[in-house]
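From the shared-data thread, chain only:
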Amino acid sequence: MCSSDLASVAARAASAGARPCDIYAAGGTPCVAAYSTTRALYRNYGGRLYQLTRASDGAQTVIGVTRPGGFADAAAQNAFCANTVCTITRLYDQSPYRNDLGIEPIGGNGSPDVGAIANALPVIVDGHQVYGLNVQAGVGYRNDVTDGVATGAQPQGAYMVTSGTHVDGLCCFDFGNAETSNTDNGNGHMDAINFGTECWFTPCSGNGGPWVMADMENGLFSGGNGSDPGNTGSATPFATAMLKNNGTTTYAIKDGNAQSGGLTTQYDGPLPDIGGYMPMHQEGSVLLGTGGDDSNGSDGSFFEGVLTAGYPSTATDNAVQANIVAAGYQKVNLGFPVTGTPYTITNVNSGKAVQPDSCGTANGTGIELYTTGGSTCQRWTFTSAGNGHYIITNVNSGTVLDSVDCGIFD
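Structure, as tokens:
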């Protein structure tokens, strides 16, 4: 089938109530892994999306779509998780290959991971209130024994819908193809989307990202051999991140506003010629939220994403972006936190409030849990620091909540 025929097929699929994986299949590059906590990625998919585990008793349940081709059953999640904390402990692959993602085990550069807090990222999709997957440091998912995922120098396409306002410069918020050993096996053994503000190969564009980059192991590539100031990044509240690699000569990076408009091609050209990337040496593991060796210090948001067999056409890319925009992703206005309004931070498990040790006011005072009593040392205010981050200040002491010596370890 010639490229013009593929473009026509993809366009017809996009106009017929299709979902992203229907569009990819019509374009000749079917999904081999497809995940979402928000919606079906095939028009006829009516199965499982993700598994919840309840903190209070360890019970588990599965959240699916409300109808074939529909949206996540958030009401079932709300009922199951009422008055307790739930984590997302499994992501189900909607493709026929059933490459489900479980919690990532220990790797060469990271401890065993945990599941994301299930209700931490509420969003609206096509008028339906659902939940995204909120990745914080230590959250990660992986499947090292897959079927159909590209290996060696086989071509692959990938996209994810993420957020340009929930990012950081730590390694590595990835989604894609990685090593089956959970260790760094060398250049070209990964083919994953990375999204963040880490400038691995300098110089990077002056706006500071976040950038869609290719994690092909031992480097986050903005384009070419790594540095590509022409990759200007995408800081939109909802962002489409797209990567495709023909495995032997060429890769392309695209991004876009997931709420409107088309895609921007940030790079389309040769694979790195600095050794090991031409051809690629993909291993076929699928990961989300960490680097190939389980480097797990990053933050990010994940709403949906797929891996394909084959190198998608430009027409297919554009049709998928149009479908994402039509899905109507929107933020949920929770009305929290209100700047200057004092809040009590309460631990769900114990029912006790967070306060400085013995209500101390000195710099370096530790934090403890104590029976809620309404004192000013249990009251905190939130001030926006931009990009969805907040400075938390204790009302009594006027000092801020931070980690000891700005440490990042457990």
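Residues 314-327 form the longest helix (14 residues).
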